[in-house]
Amino acid sequence: MLTAARLGAAALTAALLTGTAAAPALADTPGTGTAPAAPAPDGLYGKGDPSYDGVWRQSLALTALTAAKVTPADSAVGWLTGQQCADGGWPSYRADAAPACDAAAEDSNATAVAIQALVALGDHQDAVDKGVQWLKANQNADGSWAYNPGNPGDANSTGLAINALLAARTDPATVAKAGKSAFDGLALFQLGCAAPAEQRGGFVYQTSPDGTPAEANGLASGQASLAAAGGRLPVTNTNRTDAAPKALACPDGAAAAAVPRADSGEAAGAYLTARFAANGQHLTLTLPGAAPSPDYAATAWAALGLVQGGHPQQAAGAVDWLAKEGGTWTKGGTDAAATATLVLVAQAAQRDPAAFGGTDLIKQLTALGPAPKATGAASAPASASAPAKKDEGGSLSKYWPLGIGLLIGIGGGLMLSLQRKRGAKL
């Protein structure tokens, strides 16, 4: 069973997402409420309470540093592999890795980013294979994934699972339940021709049980766009398409069908490009009763999705904005997940993460964890694109400190479901 603290955090995330947005990754901040914050263990990046985002921020940090040719300390890698459960999944965090995991509390988002980190690191094929098998076992009958097993799927979790499958060289089109593939699951959340023109190509967080039309969600759209474009972490695509992303074609009388897989990435890119243009080159977060505010995690993931889709020029304005404003998101360099995500954005955009907006993000990130074994070209990792074992079947951010009190102020009438928001998961 989930603890009261975790239920409160999950409820807050769902409220933010249904209210309009949230991040799957938790902020690297101390615990809130009456429960004491869990101390950060040795080997973990970041000093804040790891209870809800330990595996998330560790995985992002290891992925970013490895791509920057930094060889992480054995203790950092060992901490991540030691968090894996016997069935192959990862929880958000467990202070004591000796007891068996609570299967209901295992976390698809943490599992997805952990798989990508271990692929990037190399030499962890057994753990990667077990993680992939866990994702397969916990896929919903509609092809989607939930944050925790047994819950309705959501765009963020489904997109992250697809990222992990791609990193592990497992074709998402072959990973299916009841005849519905991972791509079919992702398509459930993308708005097509039945939506207003300005919403088409965006992703909702979850579908409405009663069929009520839903609006595109910033973080869901940003995070799912990387999967729609066929990408994973770290983003290394250097292909460039001079044309802007192609908006979804909806001739008069077009059927209200799912967005075709072949059009999904471009449609998402077109939606995000339009949102950037309308909002000063960033996405926004709208809390109930509050004015819109910048959504750093959503902006970062959207930039990654655009670069993966071959549209770095459409991502450039958002990358510039993140370089200028990123210090707020990273809390002056103390938030490991945010710092690692900025490193990944800089790398994808072919910017220097050691001089991103005047900040050495690599130095900043390494200072948040154990001293690395090596840095520079001598420590270049195995390529994240190197072939891994082929699959036999075929390939939060800063809002948690608002606490449960915000939920009370909003009211209890929202349908709550589980999602971090982190980044991210963010």
Question: Could you please describe the fold and organization of this structure?
Answer:
The protein has one domain: Glycosyltransferase, CATH 1.50.10. It has 14 helices and 4 strands. It has helices at residues 4-19, 54-67, 74-82, 108-121, 125-137, 155-167, 182-187, 218-228, 261-278, 296-308, 312-329, 336-348, 361-366, 403-410; strands at 176-177, 180-181, 284-285, 293-294. β1 and β2 form a beta hairpin. α10 packs antiparallel against α11. It is globular. It starts with a helix and ends in a 16-residue tail after the last helix. Residues 1-34 and 378-426 have low confidence and may be disordered.
Quick overview:
The chain has 426 residues and is mainly α.
